[in-house]
Design brief:
The protein is of the alpha+beta class. 33% of the residues lie in helices and 26% in strands. The protein binds adenosine-5'-triphosphate and magnesium ion.
Length: 405
């Protein structure tokens, strides 16, 4: 089993998927941008070969480079779990005639308007939305939908260039701020709580399903620096109040024809209980969501994803043991971390239920909170009881403070 794996080192959890591939018996050819020597040792030990494909975002050129370098090596799979290179993997597959997701299918997981149309055709409730390229089209869309609307790039990530607009003035402002975005979507704004549904899928059938919730909604968390964003992975995703998300995910996976791989769907639940589609990626969720699935179930879903794509099988024992909470912290002030307040107390309060604490050490430069959800580090905790995990999360949200300066 020879697997070409694009982006085996970044984002950082991709190193674990690389390990998974090697552990299920694959020979892994890593593809990235830059020389092999620059790859972390963690990745290198699982790679049999390295292809420097230059700028991976130049999809057509990178696809030709990769195809020419691996043609004739007997490659069985081409995989990638980084949002911008999912389509690149599909292009390489098509050039080499390797089975797996096609370019047309990949576009359904990348282009938000195509995604919405295909999800609607699969029978799920999606926000009313339009693709727009000009200000004129944008205003026409807003008029048809009615305020509030959301304005976001056609292929965005990390809530970049995404705005909630409550009236014509804020819409005009958002359009001015996003003039550099060539193509965007104007969509009905859905007021509600925001969840994910994350799955490992074999031949369009999920073999593992997990639900998490974001606190607060990502768009809010990413616009206010003082917030400590948090997320919880539910112990049992088949709870009646979460089943709407599970059912939606199953329909969308089949309707968009994922095939085999990881999916990360986001969905909204309104106050009235209506379940509305947000988006879906043919990749794992970021921000340590995969680690949370592992802590919740006491298994190794990195390796089981690899087993699924290589061998169409899943052998993980899905424990459903714990709720897992994660709290991301952002320091007050700029520069280097100079003090950490309340960390020891919060850790003591969690005791053995604290599974990881990776807040930046004193002296470390702050990270750019707009660029990374992980911000200046995180704490993760688990417990069989939901209220217990939420109480621990509250402690990290309220009582822990990082200072920089
Ligand atoms: N139709 C909508 N109604 C309400 N909120 C929305 C809508 N579309 C997007 N949002 C908000 O904007 C955020 C970012 O949008 P979306 O998830 O579509 O883009 P993204 O940038 O690809 O996401 P990610 O942050 O997951 O990479 C969502 O998490 C949600 O909070
Ligand atoms: Mg999103």
């Amino acid at each position: 089993m020879k697997v070409v794996f694009i982006q085996p080192s970044y984002p950082v959890e991709q190193q674990e998927f690389t390990r998974g591939l090697a552990e299920v018996g694959a020979t892994v050819i890593g593809v990235g941008s830059g020389p092999k020597a620059q790859q972390p040792a963690r990745t290198l030990r699982y790679l049999s070969a390295w292809v420097d494909a230059g700028n991976l975002l130049d999809l057509d050129r990178a696809a030709r480079t990769i195809a020419s370098k691996v043609r004739g090596l007997g490659v069985d799979r081409v995989e990638s779990l980084w949002e911008p290179t999912v389509e690149l993997a599909a292009k390489v597959r098509e050039l080499l005639g390797i089975p797996g997701m096609t370019v047309d299918t990949a576009i359904g997981f990348r282009d938000k308007q195509v995604m919405m149309e295909r999800a609607r055709a699969a029978g799920v409730r999606v926000p009313h939305s339009f693709r727009i390229r000009t200000a004129k089209e944008a205003w026409a869309a807003a008029e048809r939908i009615g305020f509030p609307v959301i304005l976001k790039p056609i292929a965005g990530a990390g809530s970049a260039d995404t705005y909630r607009c409550d009236d014509a003035d804020s819409f005009a402002q958002a359009l001015a701020l996003t003039r550099h975005v060539a193509e965007a979507v104007v969509a009905e704004f859905i007021d509600g709580e925001e969840f994910t549904c994350d799955c490992v899928v074999i031949d369009n059938t999920p073999v593992f399903e997990s639900i998490s919730q974001y606190f607060p909604r990502p768009l809010i968390a990413r616009s206010e620096q003082w917030i400590s964003p948090a997320q919880i992975t539910f112990r049992d995703p088949y709870r009646p109040d979460l089943m709407g998300g599970i059912e939606m995910s199953r329909k969308v996976i089949a309707g968009l024809n994922l095939g085999t791989g990881f999916t990360h769907m986001e969905w909204y639940r309104t106050r009235k209980g209506e379940v509305v589609f947000g988006e879906i990626g043919a990749r794992n969720g970021g921000g340590h969501l995969v680690d949370m699935m592992n802590w919740s179930n006491d298994f190794d879903v990195y390796r089981e994803w690899a087993r699924a794509v290589c061998w169409r099988s899943f052998e993980g024992e899905i424990g459903r043991k714990f709720f897992v909470g994660m709290v991301f912290k952002r320091a007050l002030g700029n520069g280097r971390i100079k003090a950490r307040l309340g960390v020891e107390e919060a850790a003591a309060r969690c005791g053995r239920w604290l599974v990881s604490e990776q807040l930046l050490a004193v002296g470390t430069p702050r990270r750019d909170w707009k660029q990374t959800l992980v911000s200046d580090g995180f704490a993760a905790m688990r417990h069989p009881d939901e209220q217990a995990v939420k109480a621990m999360m509250d402690t990290w949200i309220r009582d822990v403070k990082l200072f920089a300066g």
